[in-house]
UniProtKB/TrEMBL annotation:
Residues 44-69 are annotated as: Disordered. Its main location: mitochondrion. It is found in: Mitochondrion matrix. Pfam families: GrpE. Keywords: Chaperone, Mitochondrion. InterPro entries: GrpE (IPR000740), GrpE_CC (IPR013805), GrpE_head (IPR009012). This is GrpE protein homolog. Belongs to the GrpE family. Essential component of the PAM complex, a complex required for the translocation of transit peptide-containing proteins from the inner membrane into the mitochondrial matrix in an ATP-dependent manner. PANTHER family: GRPE PROTEIN, GRPE PROTEIN HOMOLOG, MITOCHONDRIAL.
């Protein structure tokens, strides 16, 4: 009984030692050669080879194409922006030119709006001149009434011409000036030994300008040359 118990205790106390065997299979050098190269791939369940991870060339080409497309779009937008800027500058220049032309047209219309009306008034001024020319100097000296009438007509003409000058209407009296076809209308020529040929020596009808524009040339007599 005691011997059985001792054996049992010894069995319990004795550790069970397991012998482990390396889990590998020797490779025959005769079958695969003396040196074995390292396998860089594995086979899946279907026996297909899985290659080692490399950069995706297709993805790189796609990125290059995308970059090129963006560069092309940028170049196109830059060209379009330059064209729009040029069109804007031209539009601004045209608008400013239009403003200047419109301003000049408005100024001309304002300055010469009285042209037709002024031409109608010139006949009245001419009549004042004809009336004053009808008075004789000896009659003015003899009669006070005639002298007063002459003075009244002359004052009325002067006031009338002063009003016209306020609105830019000036009288042309070119006696002694060189004949100018833009301002004068020659009605006759006469030789004058003491005067230079081509000069105005007589005014048959006064001319008038409106803001430096001739609205009626002066009718004059010109010295005839030899």
């Amino acid at each position: 009984m005691r011997a059985f118990t001792s054996v049992t205790r010894a069995a319990r106390l004795t550790p069970i030692v397991k012998r482990t065997v390396p889990y590998y299979t020797p490779v025959s050098t005769a079958r695969f050669g003396k040196f074995q190269s390292l396998r860089l791939y594995s086979e899946d369940a279907n026996g297909k080879k899985e290659t080692e991870a490399k950069p995706d060339e297709n993805e790189s080409n796609a990125e290059d194409k995308k970059v090129k497309d963006l560069e092309d779009q940028l170049a196109a937008k830059t060209k379009e922006a330059a064209e729009l800027k040029d069109r804007l500058l031209r539009s601004v220049a045209d608008f400013r030119n239009l403003q200047e032309v419109t301003k000049k047209d408005v100024e001309k219309a304002k300055n010469f709006a009285l042209q037709k009306f002024a031409k109608d008034l010139l006949e009245s001024i001419d009549n004042f001149g004809h009336a004053l020319g009808a008075f004789k100097e000896e009659d003015l000296e003899k009669s006070k009434e005639i002298n007063d009438l002459y003075t009244g007509v002359k004052m009325t003409r002067d006031v009338f011409e002063k009003t016209l000058r306020k609105h830019g209407i000036e009288r042309l009296d070119p006696v002694g000036e060189t004949f100018d076809p833009n301002k004068h209308e020659a009605t006759f020529e006469l030789a004058q030994p003491d005067k230079e040929p081509g000069t105005v020596f007589h005014v048959q009808q006064f001319g008038y300008t409106l803001n430096d524009r001739v609205i009626r040339p002066a009718k004059v007599g010109v010295v005839k040359g030899e």
